Amino acid sequence: MAAAVAVLPATMEPSPGVEHRPLYLGPWRIDFTTRPGVPRVTSRAVLARAIGAALDSAGAPRPASVGVILADDAELAGLNATHMDKHGPTDVLSFPLLPPEAFPVHASAEHSRRIGTSRGVAFALPPGRRLQLGEIVVSVERAIEQAEAGRGGQTGDVRWSPADELRLLVTHGTLHICGWDHAAPEEEAAMRALEQRLLVPA
Q: How many Cα atoms are found within 13 Å in the side-chain-facing hemisphere of 76?
């Protein structure tokens, strides 16, 4: 899994021919955008539940919304080159709109030392408004290929269904939105442990 965090690009503006659908789950609104030609490997409801569980576990400010773009390798390769200076497609990219300090400190000692806080940031919003936490862009094409070739899962050597791989990728992307990272070994261990707890059968 080659997820990363980047700055939200202006190219994510809605365009003709794409399918937009918001799903509401408790305090969360998940705004799905599906690019033309992207296959459907699982329901948006399954993905929304995975995202909601990750937001709950990360202590995300509520009510809030997250954008999810279901795309292909070509789009992810373009974003990867533009925002991460890496060539070729990746499976998921996260574009957080809030700093890590907006979320409660989590299990990673390295992360806790870096942000130096034990509380999330409180946000006062006008009535009826939701805080936008960020965008997750997933290559459904890459999820299918990784799952079917036995290069899926957290370790990159799991053969399972494309639906399971897609659930993992949106969970991973959501945790990145919420300030989680895996640059240091302690952070990676904490993030993987949380993902394993969250990835119960849908």
A: 26
Helix residue spans in 36-86 (DSSP H) = 44-58, 73-84
Report d(CA 69, CA 194) in Å as an integer: 23
Domain around 145:
4-198
**What DSSP state is assigned to residue 51?**
H
Radius of gyration of the chain (CA): 16
Please write the tens of the pLDDT for every residue from 53-98: 999 999 999 999 999 999 999 999 999 999 999 999 999 999 999 9
- Number of C-alpha atoms within 13 angstroms, CB side, residue 100? 18
Question: From CA 135, how far away is CA 132, in angstroms rounded?
Answer: 9
DSSP 69: E
The pLDDT tens digits of the residues spanning 130-151 come to 899 999 999 999 999 999 999 9
Kindly report the pTM of this predicted structure: 0.83
The CATH number of residue 121's host domain is 3.40.390.30
Q: Which residue has the tokens 């957080």?
A: 96
**Residue 81 backbone dihedrals phi, psi, to 5 degrees:** -70, -45
**Overall domain count for the chain:** 1
